[in-house]
Amino acid sequence: MIKFSTDKKIWILETDDTAYVFGITPGGLITASYFGAKLPRVEDYPAAGEQPAWASFTNMEGQSYEEFSCWGGPRYNEPCLKVEFHDGVRDAVAEYKSHAIKENMLTVTLKDKFYEMEIDLVYEVFADANIIKKSSRVKNTGSNDIIIDQILSGAIYPQQANEYRLTHLCGRWIGETQLMQQVIPEAKITLESRKGFTGHHANPFFALDKNSNADEQHGEIYFGELAYSGNWKICIEKDNFNSIKITAGIHDFDFRWILKAGESFNAPALVYGYTADGFGQMSRNLHKYQLKYLNKFNTNSGNRKILYNSWEATFFSIDEAGQKKLAAIAAETGVELFVMDDGWFGERHSDKAGLGDWFINNKKFPEGLKGLINHVKSLGMDFGLWVEPEMINADSDLYREHPEWIYHFPNRKNTEMRNQLVLNLARKDVQQFVFSFMDKLLSENEISFIKWDLNRAISEPGYPSAEKNEMRQVWVEHTFALYEIIGLLKAKHPKVIFQSCSGGGGRVDMGVLEYFDQVWPSDNTDAFDRLLIQEGFTYAYCPKIMEAWVTDKKNWVNGRELSLEYRFHSCMMGNLGIGENLTKWNDEEKAEAKKLISEYKEIRHVIQNGELYRLLSPRSSHLFSVMYVTEDKNEAVLFAMLQCNHFGKELPKIFPQGLDSNSVYTVNIDGNDIVMSGKAFANIGIEIKLKGDFKSKIVKFIKMKVES
Ligand code: DGJ
Asked: Counting atoms of ligand 1 from 1, which one is nearest the CA of 502?
């Protein structure tokens, strides 16, 4: 997987289908030399080179494809590292020192020419997922402080082409993960968050397709995601010589880190890849990596339980009797996990009070948490609970006791959003508080699932009692503390599934997913809007982690009324949940829900663990279709979702993908069995007849046994 060619001085990182190569130039720079399809001969990979200067205005160093450019000398594009040494020198000169290859890992160590600073470039290759992960680590090997002004995870240079198009995910609350595309101009594009968390408005994912011509099945794409949940940035710079440099990492905005003697700073990982087979293959590679390798606690085997969440049914009007009633109906229809949302603790009767007071409100729950949990367990379900540990209301006992625990600048107003303030997680006492109350909740109660919410961004990021020159570290310390707390909780309570929620999909990224098991992609639960959100989501993230709840017939977001079947089908494309006010269901609806839930139980292994093929997009077709195929290609499930039918026109044919070309499959559509080879299905297609608005159908493909 990883080789070092001593004659060419290049490191060759190969996956099953791709290769990433970089090396040492004759002038001593470390530059990228190849990224693309794996070549048949190792000898074919080029040596690392330098780019020529252009007159007296651009120098070789600034033009070359440096693997990890340190600011200093004539460099004017985005640096990966910018530091200041104790004597005020702000020019880093990193040279090759050594390297080590251990199985699928490579560490290349650089050393400053004069100062006592080393940099490790760390790579990990995931061959079967065609994914490489890289990160950087700066080490202070001397006795004086080093100030880090900027540290990114690394750079990538797509091969030159006429043009590249950027695909990325944008959005807002109740409109997350919308796909955006634009041709990259001769300029710099920055995708970023300065909000202290990942953000609804942008997601740390990018894809650049060569000559802007990729589709789901064809085209060369360079893609990646930053595994980080705090302030982040991804820069895409196209220079005047048609070269593109992509850099990604922790945002340098308001960032400064004092690296003391003997300390190291680990940048988060940049997870990236290349494919020649379109956006579909890009997503499948990312999904495979997420399912097999990403989560530190390896919780992605098996199937996820079907959950019920009480939020849209009750909002803050929550009590023991009401929750028990909902739980009984949920269990009757086949739900496996009952999750109680906001409102169960302290004086939490609205979003104005109570955050921080993490003890059960005995007026609402006379038997305590245990009363409800025992009831849920007796119904055969697991129990889950909502928390928002990083936040506090000014109207809470915790705030009255510890007003100093929030981020704030003295003499300035503390901005409240949703009436809440942000706890200063950079403080050790706050970290201890959060860990302890969570540990107590999990130790004293049979809780199998935690929904960890975050409903505002950080503002006034002040930490008045910190050392003055360390005050800007809070942005990063907050995120690292979150990871550490979840890591400790996971280690102590390994069976608990953690969901990352941030007012919907505000904190979805590969950093949070190293610790959390699944996410709530959006508070928008309209089953049709959701198709667009889910399509964008699956570009970067796998369906298994994508919770989707069936909610009330008339959706609160836009008043759209949809059938129970359509709502279920939309949610069955991911990790199915129910969020409807079940007490309003009549017997017919209960029976239909029960049937649909049992149908999902039969196909969920295909959806949650299979490979996804996007067949028709809701962005360009009134008929939307996706398909999931098991890795062994024995089973597949296809969804067809019609928005509306115009002028009685025939609907487009759907061309199933992902089946084994030479195997024979059977599928039943409206009572008719169709038996064809996988290749025939892909080339001839199938017709799914749907009439009316918002109609849907699921069909299953089964591989036929070959008689021997
Ligand atoms: C925002 C979440 O996205 C909702 O699902 C719900 O948990 C509320 N917070 C509760 O305050």
From this structure: 3
